[in-house]
Amino acid sequence: MRAVPTWIDRVHDREKVEQCIYDLAFKPDGTQLIVAAGNRVLVYDASDGTLIQPLKGHRDTVYCVAYAKDGKRFASGSADKSIIIWTSKLEGVWIPFSFNGQKSVSKHKVNSKVTCCGWTNDGQYLAIGLFSGVVSIRNKSGEEKVRIERPGGSLSPIWSICWNPSKEEHNDILAVADWGQRLSFYQLSGKQIGKDRALNFDPCSVSYFSKGEYIIMGGSDKQVSLYTKDGVRLGTVGEQQSWVWTCKVKPDSNYVVVGCQDGTIAFYQIVFSTVHGLYKDRYAYRESMTDVIVQHLITEQKVRIKCRELVKKIAIYKNRLAIQLPEKILIYELFSEDNTDMHYRVKEKIAKKFECNLLVVCSQNVILCLEKRLQCLSFNGVKEREWLMESLIRYIKVIGGPSGREGLLIGLKNGQILKIFVDNPFAIVLLKQATSVRCLDMSASRNKLAVVDEHNTCLVYDISSKELLFQEPNANSVAWNTQCEDMLCFSGGGFLNIKASNFPVHQQKLQGFVVGYNGSKIFCLHVYAMSAVEVPQSAPMYQYLEKKMFKEAYQIACLGVTENDWRDLAMEALEGMDFDIAKKAFIRGRDLRYLELISTIERKKRGENDNELFLADVCAYQGKFHEAAKLYKKTGNDSRALNMYTDLRMFEYAKDFLGSGDPKDTKMLITKQADWARNIHEPKAAAEMYLSAGEHLKAIEIIGDHGWVDMLIDIARKLDKAEREPLSRCAYFFKSLQHPGYAAETYLKMGDLQALILLHVETQHWEEAFSLVEKHPEFKDDVYVPYAQWLAENDRFEEAQKAFHKAGRQDEAVKVLEQLTHNAVVESRFNDAAYYYWMLSMQCLDIAREKEEKQQEMLKTFHHFQRLAELYHAYHSIQRYTDEPFSSHLPEALFNISRFLLHNLTKETPLGISKINTLYALAKQSKALGAFKLARHAYDKLQGLRIPSRFQESIELGSLTIRSKPFHDSEEFVPMCYRCSTNNPLLNNQGNVCINCRQPFVFSASSYEVLPLVQFYLDEGITDEEAVALIDREVPRAEAKKDGWLENNSADVQTLRLEDNMTKVQTDPFTAKLSFEQGGSQFVPVIVNRTVLQSMSRRDVLIKRWPKPLKWHYYRSLLPDVSITMCSSCFQMFHSEDYELLVLQHNCCPYCCRPIDE
Questions:
Q1: Which of the listed ranges 363-367, 444-448, 494-498, 1081-1085 does the model predict with the highest average pLDDT?
Q2: What are the strands, taking DSSP E only, across 811-917?
Q3: What is the CATH number of domain 274-354?
Q4: Between 57 and 33, whose confidence is greater?
Q5: What element of type H or E holds 224?
Q6: What is the architecture of the domain spanning 447-534?
Q7: Which of 483, 672, 794, 968 can bridge 646 by disulfide, Cβ–Cβ 3.0-4.6 Å?
Q8: Taking every annotated instance into account, which residue ranges of this chain make up the domain IFT122 second beta-propeller (predicted)?
């Protein structure tokens, strides 16, 4: 920092008596300066100190002047108790200093003299300095809000105060200077900021710069001093001959004006010099005179180091930072070796005062430069070495080296350039030129030296030979590229100049000084700001390319060029056959196509070295097709030229190139042209081209995809029958296009009978398929299996069954039926499920009969399916009763069905059958029929189950109402065993068997009443045929008449005999058998011999004639008057009347659905 006097004036009155300058004020735009001198107001031109006009109006000394913020008026106050308001045209209006009679003015008394005052920036508060050493802060109404009492009291009167005008500060800050020789700072709240600053003089004036960053102060020390906003003294602005009564700062500038007691008015410009240091991408500079900012030029990170003293010099090198303060030097180091680390810590302090012009720091030393002398100090402050130069040192720079042995590059005023190592007392003279050195830099390899002299000429020398390589004018600074030996840049005249090797200079506009050059980044200092400018290295790269210096051009490109520059480099290197550089450049541009080309050429170069052929490939890739074709032909590679033209769809050029060549090439050309036509969506032309080239398959694919049937028929009829693959595709497309007739014609032409049969099957032309199978039985499976599946899908199960039998695929028939059965159960079609299970059982029986190895398994499955069929057949009625609003079943039938189901659901419940529905139906019907005990039991069972919401209310109501009924069942519904005449309970935990004799009950398949039938078994040795014959023989029996006569019929004689009531009635052998074998805990079957069989009547015996391997089942009716009908297909028993009614309704068996006419 230095102060430059701009102009000085001294004010006298007419008698040449010096007039004290009590106050100064600038016009807000800074053009005029108002001075209070004696009893006059002087108006100066601020730029050159010309007195514009003295203003007379006051009769006594003028103590204060002030300008309005709008710049239209200013005021002056005098000891004559008057204030004059002056316009900008310097016309005044006199106002006496008296407010008597003006009611709008409010007055507030204070207990001491007012010495100074000032408004806050927003005009809301007024700070008043009192002679008693008190600062009073009041609002606009005059009320005291804050009172600051200084320690010195009346011995330290407040002489000057000033509010910081900065808009960046969060709080209003008041600077207070008193004659206790102290400077203090306060917030609006009255809280002191920091400690009092000792001044060692009596301050008369305090004033802030426009932005509040600095303070100027003058007083009894006869000088004006510059301070930071925190009160740190930075230096003297100007020394005077008498007390400084006032000092002010020109708005928005670095100009300061001083008014003294002897009438001196001095106008100074304060010049803030740049204090900074640079090492590679780290730049350290001074800010606010007391702070050091370290900026990383690449990452733009910044760190602030607060020194709280004037920073005089800064030096930076690697991880070291040296800061010179007035009384010491601080050495900082980085926390870590990380290149991006920005955290510094104090390593050493050298607590000595040094005078120097330049400061340099190394790894272990600090270098001080004072005119001709260089001193090397350790970090402890010990002087290790000293050098004395012949002339003034103009430039010094650390050029690197091992720790403790770094080299320094020094330029002197006499033109001498030296190199010094910090551990060597002797300097090495590199060269000497005639002109003074202004700036220096050495190349990365230490072979070249760039110098800027006092005439702004950049000179480049070879260090070893001392030869001047070249020189360029208009340079003020120079820097070598740290990553490229032959590149440097220099600035000057508003331009940046980049020079590569001996090529011409490339220029672009740039303001400032070049201080560093790293890769593509140039570090430029403009005024006080350092910036990193990204400069593409395109120009020097192209200069190398023109000379075919591809390696050097690549090195330049690596520093930073555009994508287009990389591509141009790659292309030039490729054409120049420098494949290594070309590959690297294409990798940068990620051009896989050219990388593949280079890889191909490199593979070929191992076996051949025909550069013209490689150049032809390059030309083809670059789009120079005709040139490539000529080179291919020249090297004898005509086929490659032809492939190139066809790949590019340049068929006309290909034909011209081919001329009248090989027919194979012509065919290939037509095929490729057809491929192209296909790709550009011209299918008809492509198909015709394929046909002309003999590519029938490709033509058929296109024609078939587009459905051109006429063309397809024409091709199929023209093709030879030996061409099976094209004919097969024709037939496939005929099928796809719904023309089975033409497909059949094509298959016949080929002689492919199996494909023809499959065609008939797909189109469901079963008659044609069956006629072919009759002639060729080996294709039986190909017809009957799909036919059976088609029948099953169309619910024609019996026909499907026959078809499966014919095809020998009984397992598949079972699987189809199982799936249909499962679907019926899931869909609650229980009648269908019963029918399907019955059919499944019969299928299993057929398999058991045909396959002995599966007989036991199939018989077990047969009985399982028979049981499921019975259960679903019965549950169908329950489901209709619970889910539908009306039921065709009588209550007795539903009652019996419910009991039948519950007797069979003791172990497991099949899918779809609901125990709740069954119990609900039983409870309802039992209550209706008078079986109240059973109904109560059913309701109790329901209470233990999870009841659906739709039944909840009905069941709860039924459970309550049944309690009012008698706790017994009606006798008429109690089932009786026809074998042992035992009455059985309505619900039997033994199941559907007698509790006494264990004889299974036989039920009607419609009403589910117990039929008067008893099953019997044949004695050993009696076959089914013999048993039937014995039963059919029927021995004559006497029949008793109602009037007592006994009729006996023999072969030739018919007799009548009168019997009385006491005569013994003839005993039935079968009945005797029943009574003899009944009782016991185990079931004892009824086994009959030939005599008993012969005594039976044919109309009393029912036989289930099961096919083998099952045995026939025999049943004897104990009530011959009860007519019972058995279905000959499913062997289910019915009351004859019920059966006949159901047959009339459905025209088939109600159980197995066998049509009645069969």
A1: 363-367
A2: none
A3: 2.40.128.630
A4: 33
A5: strand 223-228
A6: Single Sheet (2.20)
A7: 672
A8: 276-530
The beta-carbon contacts of 570-579 under 8 Å, at least 24 apart in sequence, are: 570/594, 571/622, 572/545, 572/548, 574/598, 574/618, 575/615, 575/618, 576/548, 576/550, 577/611, 577/614, 577/615, 578/550, 578/551
Mode of pairing for the β-strands spanning 1086-1088 and 1013-1018: parallel
Give the whole-angstrom CA distance, residue 1111 versus residue 764: 42
Asked if residue 417 has pLDDT above 50, the reply is: yes
Give the neighbor-by-neighbor strand order of the sheet with 416-421: 393-398, 407-412, 416-421, 428-432
For residue 701, the one-letter residue type is E
Contact assessment for residue 434 and residue 452, using Cβ atoms and an 8 Å cutoff: no
Which band of pLDDT confidence, cut at 50, 70 and 90, is reported for residue 207?
very high
10 Å CB burial of residue 269 (0-12, 13-18, 19+) is middle
Percentage, residues of the chain above pLDDT 90: 26
* Cβ count near 48 (within 10 Å): 9
User: What is the topology classification, in CATH, of domain 2-95+103-271?
Assistant: Methylamine Dehydrogenase; Chain H (2.130.10)
Q: Which residues contact 452 (CB under 8 A, 6 or more apart)?
A: 437, 438, 439, 440, 458, 459, 475, 476, 477, 478, 490
Per the listing, tokens 């009924």 go with: 965
Q: Which of 386, 352, 358, 353 is nearest to 371 (CA)?
A: 358
Would you say residue 366 has pLDDT above 90? yes
Please check whether residue 361 is in contact with residue 397, taking contact to mean a CB–CB distance below 8 angstroms. no
| Helix or strand (DSSP H, E) at 45 | strand 40-45
For residue 99, the model assigns a pLDDT of: 46
Burial group, residue 50, by CB count within 10 angstroms (0-12, 13-18, 19+): exposed
**Confidence grade of residue 450 (pLDDT, cut at 50, 70, 90):** very high
SS3 assignment for 93-138: EEEECCCCCCCCCCCCCCCCCEEEEEECCCCCEEEEEECCCEEEEE
Contact between residue 886 and residue 915 where contact means Cβ atoms under 8 Å apart: no
The span from the CA of 830 to the CA of 910, in Å, is: 12
**Termini Cα distance of the chain:** 129
- Per-residue pLDDT averaged across 799-827, rounded? 69
Average pLDDT for 650-654 = 55
Residue 887, pLDDT above cutoff 50: yes
Q: Is the pLDDT of residue 102 over 50?
A: no
Higher pLDDT, residue 538 or 860: 860
Instruction: Region of 574 please: left (phi>0), alpha (psi -120 to 50) or beta.
Output: alpha
Torsion of CA 1095, 1099, 1102, 1106, to 10 degrees: 100
The alpha helices in 441-534, defined as continuous H runs, are: none
Q: CA-to-CA distance for 595 and 640, rounded, in angstroms?
A: 20
The Cβ of residue 451 has, within 10 Å, a number of other Cβ atoms equal to: 26
pTM exceeds 0.85: no
Structure tokens at 790: 């088609």
What whole-number percentage of the chain has pLDDT above 70?
A: 84
Contact 542, 526 (CB under 8 A): no
**Separation CA 856–CA 593 (nearest Å):** 73
Q: For residue 998, report the phi and psi dihedrals to the nearest 5 degrees.
A: 65, 20
Q: Which two tokens stand for residue 344?
A: 């510094």
Average pLDDT over residues 900-920: 87
**pLDDT number for residue 27:** 92
Looking at this protein, which amino acid is placed at residue 806? K
Query: Alpha carbon 877 to chain centroid distance?
Result: 60
**Mean pLDDT calculated for residue range 340-353:** 90
| Cα 333 to Cα 310, 348, 349, 384, 1033, distances in angstroms | 21, 9, 12, 21, 131
Has residue 651 got a pLDDT over 60? no
* Cα–Cα distance measured from residue 852 to residue 833, given in angstroms and rounded to the nearest whole number: 28
What would the two tokens of residue 670 be?
């037509």
